[in-house]
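Homework help thread (please don't just give me the answer)

Our assignment gives two proteins as sequence + structure token strings and asks us to describe the second one. The first is just a warm-up. Here they are:
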Amino acid sequence: MDTVLQLLANGLMLGGLFAIVAIGLTLIFGIVKVVNFAYGEFLMAGMYLTFLVTGWLGLHPFAAVIVVVPALFLFGALTQRLVIQPLMSARDDHIQIFATVGLSTALINLALLVFGADIATTPASGLRTPVEIGPVRILSGQIAIFAAAVLLVAGLQLFLSRTRTGHAIRAVAQNRAAAQLMGVNVDRIFILAFGIGAACVGVAAVLVAPLYPASPTIGAYFVLTAFVVVVLGGLGSITGAFVGALVIGLIDSFAGFYLGSDLREVAVFGMFLVILILRPAGLFGRRLTLSHVSP
């Protein structure tokens, strides 16, 4: 029983990690309808910035959020305005995807140029300290990530359902043309949405950096699972992304223990395919999307 409880705890903590990374991705897709293949590199940039801020100022890694989140918001907004926005009227939507792939390659090579291929380790500052809850042992950093994922989901839901700007974002996600006829500045909403999505990945970067070393290719480690989580939860569903992340985390934890690390990914992606066959729209794809967010 103790082993099962530990695996459950490990799975939930891992799911929280996947969720905190995937929330910004599903937010961007749900509103702008663009798959951002540079999303992993946004995370990588945030992790390097956390490393630099922590080293230069001698702050606790979590204190870097005051620098990293605004910086990622600005970077995301500029990406939408300068890279994506000029291509929104293109006949072929694939051009926007190719633009994000190009941005991804550029950011990886820029990181290699500036930091080299070596890893950059942010001080853990006690975040690797195990916390015992009954028979279960969890790192304090993992608890922080899970709690932040819950708060971020709840905060975004409240923002989208209770604020005037949130209503405008939901209107654009539901029907761009109708929202524009009602006086909503669609281009400004796109920029804001991309910025908020990038800010979310900035939060993820600050939380992840003390537990995982930064490298130019660290984004690829997280982004593949983030895409799986987003599709599994239902494209554009914030709550779905959170639930999907927990499902993937639990499958990963139990499969890694009972089947071995070699078959862990086989179990994850196999279950992913089974769920999509049964529910092609994802777990929450039909009931809850950004265009129909309930309080």
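The one we have to describe:
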Amino acid sequence: MASQTSGQFMLNDEQQAIRAAVREFGEAEIEPVASEYDESHEYPWDVVEKAAAADLVGPFIPAKYGGAGMDVLETAIVTEELWRADPGIGAAIDLMAFNSTLYVMNNYATEEQKEEWFSGIAAGQKSIAIGISEAAHGSDVASIETRAERNGDEYVVNGEKMWISNGSIANAVLLVCKTDPGARYDGISTILVPLDADGVTTSKIDNKLGLHASDTAEIVFDDVRVPAENLVGEENRGWQYFNEAMAPARVQVAAQALGAAQGALDAAIDYAQEREQFGQKIGEFQAIRHKIAEMATNVEAARSLTYRAAGLYDAGEIELSERFASIAKLFASDRGFEVADEAVQVFGGAGYVTDHPVERYLRDVRVTKIYEGTNEIQKEIIGNRLLGL
């Protein structure tokens, strides 16, 4: 956990070493191929394998299962640096299993389930997608229609999920589904569904604005039979489990936006020190200096909020961390998009084409305002918590 001095969060030597190691990995293994994967829309399996060898896949996984056993703050640092190198490949690596999935599994899966999946994820050989959103139900999770009906020692699953990260390359999905259709949140369960099971159809969504190197899919379940032992935790308590996992998951999204913003800022600074107009470096013009100053201020503010939310969670201040995770996700994603947009402006026309990475940061960071709870939902959460509603 980060130490606290007068409200400031200071990284210790181990956490600084984590940042340095991931930055070195990003600069050596991700940045040189980022443009290639963005253009090809191919999944970067070779980079994911290298990341796994460096303990960067599923760092939240306990060491006993082959993971790095990192806390939420350390995991956020990893995510931030991966996205600084390139959001698309960064997403491919850090979404092998989303933090919410790992949290639910670690706290409610059986020992057999954890042994089966965690070591494979940490090794970069397996992936578990999280299946919440549907075409007609995004923010309104209580109205999801995908059902799992108990039939003897099996569940029969029917429905479809939309916008599923890693949906077409994962080995299984931790499916959030209705086991009591008459109830709302109290009728939701979490079930591990292998994606090679009979009746499962996955369709890659390839016409995305950004994150071209990461995988997104639609998944259809047609009378899919799943052993009842694949239930994670207790029946009809699935949404409670995910509510508990929202803080680390939203910290992860805040860290994603933060990393993309830092990458865009770094590129803008470098360009401002190289590009000449009217006989001088453009960084010498007050308009550009002030623009970069505002960008840097937003990045540092986003980092402080992200680290604070993570530090609160790691310190056991769960209720407070939930509010700050929403604040961090809201601020980092909003300001991250603004920073990337301003980076394009610093580059001018050169920033509007794929010759430079800033247009990619702009496209890629945009989704952080949408997933893991839209920013409109985050405002509702923050306001309700402050007003006791």
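TA reply:
I won't write it for you, but here's a hint about the kind of observation we're looking for: The longest helix spans residues 238-272.
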